[in-house]
Structures are given as C-alpha cells and as structure tokens.
Amino acid sequence: MNITVTLIAQMIAFVAMIWLVNKFLWAPLSAMMEARRQRIADGLSASERGKHELKLAEERAVQVIKEAKEKATEMLAQANGRSNEIIDEARNNAKTEAERILTGAQAEINREVERAKQELAKQVAVLAVTGAERILKREVDAKAHEASLADLVARV
Amino acid sequence: MSAAENSDGGSVQYIQHHLTNWSVGEGFMTLNLDTLLVSVMLGALIVFAAMRVGRNLQVGAPSGFQNFVEMVLDFVDRQVKDSFGSRDNMVIAPLALTVLVWVWLMNFMDLIPVDLIPAILHGAGMEYFKAVPTTDLNTTLAMAGVVFLLTVYYSIKVKGPMGYLKMFLFHPFGKLFVPVNVLMTAIEELAKPLSLGLRLFGNMFAGELVFLLIALLSGAATIGAALLIWFPLQVVLDLAWLLFHILIITLQAFIFMVLTIVYLGMAHATEDDH
Dihedral, CA atoms, B15, B16, B19, B23, nearest 10 degrees? Predict the structure, then answer.
C-alpha cells in the first residue's frame, strides 16, 4: 500500500497509453467521422441542389411547352390565313377565268351571229334575186345588177 | 480455498494475503509487478483493439465493433465539448478516452472472482497476486499525477508563467492576503489530483474488500451443516455485489474522465473566466 517506484512506472505507462490511443484510435477514427460528416453534408447539399435543379427544369419545361403551344397556335392561324388566301386567290382566278371564257364565248357568239346575219343577207339577196327573176320571168343579168345587189346585201 | 486452509483467525491473514502485491525490490524501489503486468496487458488489449478498428475504418456503413467504438468516442467527445468547450487541444480528447476505457477495464478486473487468479497463479508457484490495478494506490495516483502535470503545463502555457504565479499570489482573496493565497491555492491545486486518485482507489479498494468479505462467508464455515446456509448466502450476496459493482466501476471510470476534463478545462480558463 506504499507509494513506490511503481507510481512512476504507471505514469509512464499511462502517458504511453494516451499516445497510443491517440495514434491508433482517436486520430484515425475522428478523422474518419469528420470525413463521414462531410460526406453526409455533401450528399444533403447535393440532393438539395438536385431538388432545386429539378424545380428549375420543371419550370423550364412548362415554359417550353407554353412557347410550343403558342407557336403551334400561331402556325395554325398562319396556315388558316394562308389557306383562306389560297382559296380566295383560286376563287378570284376562277372568276376571272370564267369571265374571260364568258367574254370569249360572247364574242364568238357575236361573231357567229354576225356571220349568220351576213350569210342570211347573202341568201336573202339570192332569194331576192331569185324572187325578182320569178316575178320578172326573165333572166336578170346578175352582172348588170351586181352593184345594186351588193348595195342591197350591205344594207341587210 | 485458501481461506479454508487457514481458518480459525485466518480471516485477517486471508485478506492481508489478498491485498499484498507481487513485487520486487525494497522500500521505495519496490515494483508492483502484478499491477504493472495487468495494467499493461489491459492497455495492450486496448491498443490492439484500437489498431484493429483503426486500420480498416468504414466511412459508409460501419458495423459491429466499429459502431460500438464510435459510440464510445462520440460519448467522450460530447463530454469533452460540454466541459471543455471548443478550445483547441489535441491531448484532452484522447486522454479522456484513454482514461475512460483503461480505468474501466482495470476496474473490471474487480469483477473476476477474487480467488480465481491468485489460485491459478498459486499453482504456478506465485505467492501473491493482486489482480486489480486500480486497487493499487500507485496506479490511481500515477494517472492523477499525469493529469496534474498536464494541468500545470497548460496553466502555464495559457496564462503564461506570470499569470500562473499571479493565480497563486492573488487568488482567491485578493492582493492583501498574499501568504494566505499561496497556501490556499497550493492546497486547492494539490487537492485536485489527490482527490482524483484517492477517490478511484478508495472505491475500488472498498469494493475489493467487500468481495473478500463475501468470499470469507463460506470459507469461515468448515465442512458441515453450516455450509448449507452460508454457501447459498455467499452466492446471492456475491451476485448482488457484482451487479452493483458493475455500476460502481463504470461510474468511477466516468467520474475520473469527467474530472480530468474539468481540471484541464480549468487550466485553460484565463483571468476573465474567473
């Protein structure tokens, strides 16, 4: 029960123990736990960042969809306008064409009428001559009356 | 049953036999070999376990023993942070951990049946063997002494030599009572390591003594009808004291650690903190 040199030996042993425990357990383990803490913190911040990015991406997606919709509507309106234009154009073209054809036909008809009239006039002249011949019972010299006949035809 | 061998007034001898160290040398130069052997062996056990854990640490998913060690380390770290604050000190935390684990293991030797180790070693021709290092005053005072030296070192380091001297001269009564102050502070400073070492020693020694007394119960009764009463009683008492003693050894290790931290924290306190 006496204080002996054992005390000093135990002190040395104790100091050595502290040093060894620090070297082999405390230092590596606390460094590891700090590393783990850091890793968890990093993971948490990364997940937070991921969440934030997801939110941004969602917002962006909504924006893009909205823009696409707007564009589509615009394009649709444009297409509608263009088709109306085309239809109008076609209608106008058809109208002018129809008018042109109509005018041509009218002219043709007029010409035909004119020709028919002339034909008729000629025949009327011939008929008139023939009639006159019958009435006069003699040959009318066509040559002698050609001038007055032509004048007649022109008048018809 | 060494007690049975020397019954009839052999109780005193039995106890004294158990409280004698295996030692070499005379007077102050005595080396208590059992104390040294057991404490160093337990220390080696701790270092071995520490190396095993420290060599392959798992950051991601720790398992088994590492979990347990981390729990202990976390606990010690929290104690240090509570009492010591966030002051930067590379020694205090490993010191506290060492104190807790080592003292607990040395105390734990108390739970081994008191006659077991001496009986085995008696067969090997060894006369005396005291298995619990913390029932040796040398061990507890050695640890307290190291803590004391550290407090002196850090006091001087933090306060400066003049600050440390001032603490002796003007504390606690101010400038008018310098001699009284020196005396008071010296007593105060010396009482810390002494109480630290003696508390642990006293508790462990007393616990060991109770175990010895319980062991004497059936030892004192010779073979016969009386043994039928004493033997079960010894078993029951021994078990009860064992269970209670688990608390004591843990509590004493914890107290030693906390006081170590507190004393070192006080050493770090500057003038303004007083």
Answer: -150
Radius of gyration of chain B (CA): 23
Using CA coordinates, name the residue in chain A closest to B44. Answer: A17
- Closest-CA distance, A23 to chain B, in angstroms, reads 9
Number of domains in chain B: 1
Note whether B145 and B201 are within 8 A (CB).
no
The pair of structure tokens assigned to B152 is 């002196």
Assess B138–A contact: CB distance below 8 Å, yes or no. Answer: yes
| Residue B140 Cα to chain centre, angstroms | 5
pLDDT, tens digit, for every residue of B243-270? 999 999 999 999 999 999 989 888 887 6
Interface predicted TM-score (ipTM) of this complex, two decimals: 0.77
A46-98: per-residue pLDDT in tens? Answer: 999 999 999 999 999 999 999 999 999 999 999 999 999 999 999 999 999 99
Task: Tell me chain A's radius of gyration from C-alpha atoms.
Answer: 60
Assess contact for B46 and B100: CB atoms under 8 A: no
Give the residue among B6, B30, B28 at the shortest CA–CA distance from B18. Answer: B6
Before B172, cis peptide (omega within 30)?
yes
- In 3D space, the residue among B185, B147, B184, B143 whose CA is nearest the CA of residue B164 turns out to be B185
Residues in chain B: 274
Q: Which of A16, A28, A39 sits opposite B57 (nearest CB)?
A: A28
- pLDDT tens digits for B130-181? 888 888 888 899 999 999 999 899 888 888 888 888 878 877 777 777 888 8
Domain containing B241: what range? 2-55+63-273
Alpha carbon distance A6, A14 (integer Å):
12
Hey, CA dihedral for B144, B188, B202, B101, is it positive or negative?
A: negative
* Cβ neighbours, 10 Å, residue B242: 14
B78 an active-site residue? no
**HEC profile of B128-145:** CCCCCHHHCHHHHHHHHH
Q: Can you give the pTM of this predicted structure?
A: 0.70
Q: How close does chain B come to A15, measured CA to CA in Å?
A: 7
> Residue B154 CB: number of other CB atoms within 10 A?
21
Q: Which residues pair with B32 in a beta bridge?
A: B23
The four Cα atoms B251, B256, B262, B267 give a dihedral, to 10 degrees, of 180
